[in-house]
Write a structure and sequence with these properties.
Jelly Rolls
Length: 280
């Protein structure tokens, strides 16, 4: 498959490629990620279309299927982490003060819709690290109108309080180790960006009004036929095609239902936008 990144650009400030990882360690990490996890959990259903699965490695309960993120200043290893020696080695090597650690699998055709994280966690500075273990060129993050492919072999930093979404258009499954950590000297030392690999970022085009109107017309036709989920997905996916203003996809869905005089659905999507983007 050819790369989906045709016009490389610089990375947005809210994402950075940090430390390079030893190739031998990467092979061990990848092997563990593909052979050890089982019984993946689908959580945060409102945030996705059903293809995003997680398992916890460090949390406050020790249960790998406990995947609802919350503040956790003294996490304990889960039974899953105890079976993954290479992951233990990497976490110890990074030395950061971990709040939560998990594996996340994004299957082919899966989307995590535009959202902000940490909205309910406001008292302490925290950061998110991504370690891609298995990926492909059609799996990318979108934030600030730029799509970013997090390549294997690096520790990446993401500021998840900025609106962002993730997709894996064609597969195979993308698997990342995700570490939420508190601000400390170890994180400050780690947070020195290296130059990203060529082609990891691309600015999305600005949408023309005619393109948005066409998408809304298609979605409206689907909704009139009773295919509400397909209609909503048609508009949510615009976030991954165009440089959209924050929350614009949600506004288009609300406007579609308003035009159809489905006021309850319009109010529901107005409220959902507030929850997804932390405006509640």
């Amino acid at each position: 498959m050819t790369s989906t990144f045709m016009n490389p650009t610089t990375l947005p400030a809210d994402v950075a490629a940090l430390r390079r990882l030893d190739s031998g360690l990467m092979e061990r990490l990848r092997h563990e990620a593909l052979t050890v996890p089982q019984d993946w959990v689908v959580e945060y259903g409102d945030y996705q279309n059903g293809g995003w699965h997680t398992l916890s490695l460090l949390n406050d309960s020790g249960d790998p299927r406990d995947v609802t993120i919350r503040d956790c200043p003294q996490p304990q290893p889960t039974a899953l982490l105890e079976r993954m020696r290479a992951v233990q080695e990497l976490i110890a090597e990074l030395g950061v003060r971990v709040m939560w650690a998990r594996l996340a699998r994004l299957d082919a055709g899966a989307f995590l819709w535009e959202h902000r994280d940490y909205g309910e966690l406001t008292t302490t500075e925290r950061h998110r690290l991504h370690v891609p273990l298995v990926t492909n060129s059609s799996a990318y993050l979108v934030l600030g109108g730029t799509k970013v492919h997090m390549s294997v072999g690096r520790v990446w930093r993401l500021t998840p309080t900025s609106p962002h979404g993730v997709c894996n258009r064609y597969g195979p499954s993308r698997v990342h180790l995700i570490i939420d950590c508190y601000a400390d000297d170890a994180f400050a030392s780690l947070n020195h960006s290296e130059a990203p690999d060529p082609g990891t970022a691309e600015r999305l085009p600005e949408p023309e009004q005619a393109q948005l109107d066409e998408a809304v017309a298609i979605a409206t036709g689907l909704a009139e036929l009773g295919y509400d989920h397909a209609a909503e997905t048609t508009l949510l996916e615009l976030f991954y095609q165009y440089a959209m203003p924050e929350g614009r996809a949600y506004d288009l869905i609300t406007g579609m239902y308003t035009a159809l005089r489905r006021d309850d659905d319009a109010r529901r999507w107005h409220a959902k936008k507030a929850v997804m983007l932390g405006h509640a």
